């Protein structure tokens, strides 16, 4: 498990790890007839290896959740919360109790995969190889969706909101104080009241714009990639 916030992966990091599992898409080590024990489904090993590569794995092989664990919403998997609002985000793990058919492949279907965020997921297709399919996104699939509780994007989003609120509140206080001082000097008590309210509103607006400009330079993009630098002029 990562030691600090800066080491946490994003959902996009998990997707990248899935795309590069083994030798990439088409890799056959996880196929039913490959590896040991031969003939056994290895979908859960693909998912566990992906998460290991992303930096949020389970460590000991004996701690790796089986397909049945991922697919049972009542089974607790440490660090992975069941998503119950119907949303699917990059890096989510999708699982079904039984294999479901895919539109682009033939064979035994699929029952475990990593969501890409583009209406597809990556997992073992045709009981044979790593591939990208519509698993979990077709009508009737109804997968159990789990999301890591240790992603940088989720934590960073809350930190950004807290920082924006702090900058906005501080600017409002400064703006209000300046407005009271200027208004009071020009118009007396009434001007102090009007200036205070007006200054606070202006300060809040300026503060929120400043906060958002600062955060644009450090935020992750919607796909988990770094955002563009903010305006530092």
Could you explain how this protein is built, in words?
The model is unreliable at 215-233 (pLDDT under 50). The chain has a 6-stranded antiparallel beta sheet. With 233 residues, the chain is an alpha+beta fold. The chain folds into 2 domains: 5-150, endopeptidase fold (from Nostoc punctiforme), CATH 3.90.1720.10; 151-233, no CATH class. The two termini are 39 Å apart. α1 packs across α2. 33% of the residues are buried. A hairpin with a 5-residue loop joins β3 (110-115) and β4 (121-125). It has helices at 11-19, 43-54, 67-71, 152-215, and strands at 80-82, 93-100, 110-115, 121-125, 129-133, 144-148.
Count of beta strands: 6
Architecture per CATH nomenclature, i.e. the level-2 architecture of the largest domain: Alpha-Beta Complex
CATH superfamily of the largest domain: endopeptidase domain like (from Nostoc punctiforme)
CATH class of the largest domain: Alpha Beta
Percent range of helical residues: 25-40%
Distance between the termini: 39 Å
Residue-averaged pLDDT: 73
Strand content: 5-15%
| N-to-C series of helices and strands | HHHEEEEEEH
* Rg over C-alpha atoms, rounded to the nearest angstrom: 25 Å
Give the low-confidence spans: 215-233
Number of helices, where a helix is a run of at least 4 consecutive DSSP H or I residues: 4
